[in-house]
Amino acid sequence: MEHFIEYVAKWMVDDPDAVRVERVDNGDHVAIQLNVHEDDMGRIIGREGRLAMAMRTLLSVAGHARAVDTSLDIR
């Protein structure tokens, strides 16, 4: 799951080397923390948060297939 988020984020930003993804497991909950350069925050979030919402939706679907609750934190 975190590899997918990293792939998408690196494709969207100007500075792909600054993209960092961390996975935090808490039992049946997985939190993915996406860190990008502050200049790329607007690109990741998108207009009215649509890109961030799309990534969260895809992450939720992937988690649901594995019976895991997921969340995406963008920093």
Automatic annotation (TrEMBL):
Which ranges form a coiled coil?
none
**Which InterPro entries does the entry mention?**
KH_dom-like_a/b (IPR015946), KH_sf_prok-type (IPR009019), KhpA (IPR020627)
What GO molecular function annotations does the UniProt record carry, in alphabetical order? RNA binding
What's the protein here called? Answer: UPF0109 protein BH2482
Tell whether RNA-binding is among the UniProt keywords.
yes
Pfam families (UniProt xref): KH_KhpA-B
Q: Which domain of life is it from?
A: Eukaryota
Keyword Cytoplasm annotated: yes
Q: Which UniProt keywords apply?
A: Cytoplasm, RNA-binding
